[in-house]
Amino acid sequence: MTEKLFIFDTTLRDGEQSPGCSMNLDEKLRMARQLDRLGVDILEAGFPIASQGDFDAVSAIAAELRRPTIAALARANQLDIDRAWAALKDAARPRIHTFLATSDIHLKFKLRKTREEVLKMISWAVGHASSLCPDVEFSPEDAGRTDRSYLIECCHAAVEAGATVLNLPDTVGYCLEPEYEKMFADVKASVPGIGNVILSTHTHNDLGLAVANTLAGVRGGARQVECTINGIGERAGNAALEEVVMAIFVRRDVEPVHTGIHTEELYAASQLLIHLTGMQVQRNKAVVGRNAFAHEAGIHQDGYLKNATTYEIISPETVGMPANHIVLGKHSGRHALANRYRELGYDLTKPEIDRAYELFTQLADRKKNVYDEDLISLVNESFEHNPELYTLKLLESVASSEGRSTATIELERDGQSFRESATAEGPCDAAFRAIDRITGTPGTVVDFSVHSVSAGADSTAEVSIRAQFQEMDFTGKSLSYNVIEAAARAYLQAANKGVYEIRRSVRHAAADGRSIHENELVDRLFPGGY
Ligand code: KIV
Ligand code: ZN
User: Fold this and answer.
1) Ligand 2 centroid vs 169 CA: distance in angstroms?
2) Ligand 1 neighbour 238 (Cβ under 6 A)
3) Which of 110, 121, 373, 385 is 20 to 30 Å from 458 by CA-CA measure?
């Protein structure tokens, strides 16, 4: 039996902090539950000092998930570490992950500290974290560009102070595989007491080498790997969890380790993250991309049909990817839907099935064939608990190649209907402007993507929008056979979140006795009071 490799997922920390990937508390909890189903060993839930939202997410995940270790990130100072520990207080298995840069470039330009000062900070921070929590990870940030003998001193200081895990990050994605592998071998050979500590990889994809370097780190002796679903993360991203796991699984004939990941949950995890963030993966993305199992060339198809292993090293079922079956039509009942979801690996409760069925019938009314991909998008949508201040009752859209487009929108709020029209250069923009007129809160779309959920001309459109309201970012997603309608619904979802959040901050401000510009805002947003 090979050795166990611990999978440390940082989708909700290193991944979530990258542009376009932010999630709210409810979204982070949904993702965390899927990561738990996937079987990750350690789940880094956030950076509690960074914001109240991060603190709340770490606390909620720590309180709910009992199986995986829950890690929280902290810089090497008391405030950060104490805040991380406070967020982890209800965790069954807490881990404080503290870090400090160690490369000369970072010391000189970022920290403005000497090597001696940094060494002392490491000892103090790891010692303090260990006095609070039995499981402490230390990361010498930019280890990949740190002078090797100084790196060994830093690792020694951390181990002496009580670190249980030493993570050696290639923070800027600069290392080549042999270098990264040797760093682990050197640390393993030279740091006293290293035998009781787990070594960990953390790689970034700036040169497209994150997964290859992760595997190299494992060859060098790492027994924990840090990665994210779909490889999301700073700049070019982190090592993609699904790629690392499948490389180890497929090449178990040569890899020295195995993981505890339930590979059949990989596709669902990837799809859920796409749904929550609106960040698509490319079609040819390894393991979870739409084309990952498509065989197009005649010679490939011929070989594949004779025996799948001629051109397929992983079967789609192994990663939980559904075959592109026409599954259901408008006459299919609730029972057939529940069965299909069960076959796809979704064990839905009765209310979840009811909600999914409602969305399914709406879709099936307008689309002849409903595919597995449609069902997965629907179920992701049906789990959403978004504020529904305004609901869409009607959309009329007139688009022309010759001039401006017009949209008429009717929204309902608390039983009252509001109707407005607007014109703009395009039909989506016209619909957004009409919504703005009703809510009184104009938004600016900063990201807009349309994605066809299943194959064929009658494919469903999934629109993801990120929009700014009062300088805050909100996301919205919607699925429809009609692209303009999907866009309007996605924008309205973001607008509802925006209006809800503004309303909440106004309430807090009022409770704190602040009145200034918030009162004007209330008057403008809620002329009839709230
Ligand atoms: O890339 C990095 O160095 C990090 C550390 C905080 C581990 O994300
Ligand atoms: Zn990182």
Assistant:
1) 7
2) no
3) 385
Length of the chain: 530
The pLDDT score that the predictor gives to residue 480 is 85
d(CA 201, CA 344): 33
Following DSSP, what letter does each residue of 418-448 receive, concatenated? Answer: EEEEEEESSHHHHHHHHHHHHHS---EEEEE
Among 72-76, 82-86, 390-394, 472-476, name the one with the lowest average pLDDT. 472-476
Look at the block and give the residue holding tokens 């009022």: 510
Give the whole-angstrom CA distance, residue 247 versus residue 227: 13
- Atom 1 (ligand 1): residue with closest C-alpha? 171
Contact 231, 205 (CB under 8 A): yes
Q: What is the pLDDT of residues 369-409, one digit of tens each?
A: 788 778 887 887 766 666 778 999 999 999 988 889 999 99
Token pair listed for 473: 């970012």
Q: Ligand 1: does its nearest atom lie under 6 Å from the Cβ of 139? A: yes
Kindly give the interhelix angle for 115-132 and 148-160, rounded to the nearest 10 degrees: 30
d(CA 237, CA 336): 40
DSSP string, 380-392: HHHT-----SSEE
- Nearest Cα residue to 238 out of 251, 229, 247: 229
200 forms beta bridges with 167, 224
Q: How far is CA 17 from the centre of its chain?
A: 9
d(CA 462, CA 406): 22
Q: Rounding to the nearest 10 degrees, give the CA dihedral for residues 175, 176, 182, 186.
A: -10
Q: Residue 527: its pLDDT value, please?
A: 41
Helix pair angle (483-511, 427-439), 10° resolution:
30
